[in-house]
Write a structure and sequence with these properties.
The structure is a homodimer. By secondary structure, chain A is mainly α. Chain A has 2 domains: 56 residues, Orthogonal Bundle (Arc Repressor Mutant, subunit A); 124 residues, Tetracycline Repressor, domain 2 (Orthogonal Bundle), CATH 1.10.357.10. The first copy, chain A, has 10 helices and no strands. In chain A, helix 1 crosses helix 2 and helix 5 packs across helix 10. The N and C termini of chain A lie far apart (70 Å). Chains A and B meet through helix 7, helix 9 and helix 10 of A and helix 7, helix 9 and helix 10 of B.
Amino acid sequence: MPGTRARRSDAEVVAAVRAAVVEELAEVGLGRLTMDGIGQRAGIAKTSLYRRWDSPQAILLDALQAGFPQEQPTPAPTDDLRSDLIEALRLMIAWLTTPVARATGAILAERARYPELAEAVYTQVFEPKGGRFTGTVLRHYAAAGRIDPDRLTPVVLDIGEALVLKYTLDSGELPDEQTLADIVDQAVLPAADRPH
Amino acid sequence: MPGTRARRSDAEVVAAVRAAVVEELAEVGLGRLTMDGIGQRAGIAKTSLYRRWDSPQAILLDALQAGFPQEQPTPAPTDDLRSDLIEALRLMIAWLTTPVARATGAILAERARYPELAEAVYTQVFEPKGGRFTGTVLRHYAAAGRIDPDRLTPVVLDIGEALVLKYTLDSGELPDEQTLADIVDQAVLPAADRPH
């Protein structure tokens, strides 16, 4: 009954809908995501949902975008490339433990069936936040003249993320601090920062 | 009826059983793999299966082991580290297109439910063949004094494989020749072979 509970703010409604779409995805799968299901789980009328989003997939992308972290290079003058790279990988690991990351993984695993949605994860979620963890940091130090911008190829921008993912797939666990430092010292820095 | 078809050699029987277990896995999933199902698909009595293997999982591991390639460093005196690394990644890509690789991926994706089987993939399939594509090659050149063995950490041995996997996950396609060369030139060699 309307009025039986306190009216939620816009921000609360949006947060509830974003949480609902991620839970709904985990429960019913991509193929059965509906405005009805999401609305019911969030306690919101379908007509209200349509005021802001035009499809279940739009809600899902909005939730993934909102839940994806933004890495920040340390502001000068405390510049520290190595620490900033390790911190960027820490951010990735923190994200990997969230329901939003599992939802992202579920979409990419079904890329063959939903190619446009998978593509949208890259263009609307990953790329606006820098494309790759370590990417924002590396480009910042290249712009500052600290590393050679020519070294920042797609392969080099991908090294940190690739090794974290591979470690996670192989071990079933997230890399610890020492492994993050090893990835930065033994793979990212030699490729991005070796003498030239 | 016995005798209605030509008797197969031992090697033919083994090949048929290995192919059958991979097809059966793709069709019914890990949880419903049985000696009956495999025997039926291979056209072999269950009692004959038990003569060689003691479980469906043993058959599966045998098939994955038989289908996993073995990388080879070029024999001296045509030593060429860069070419051998690229060739090792080509082997990985050729393997990734096989039904055996998809079966391996299916097991690792269900690691949480079948931890012992996933562990056995590493100890019985990957490790006997060198643990990582590029690993055999890198260790060969370290033993020959061409690169510093101290550089061959777990992270460095994983760089090539991690970047191939990441590229494949991101693009839904296998890396082409240029990408393999970039991975070797921009990531593996700087980490394994930079001046010291």
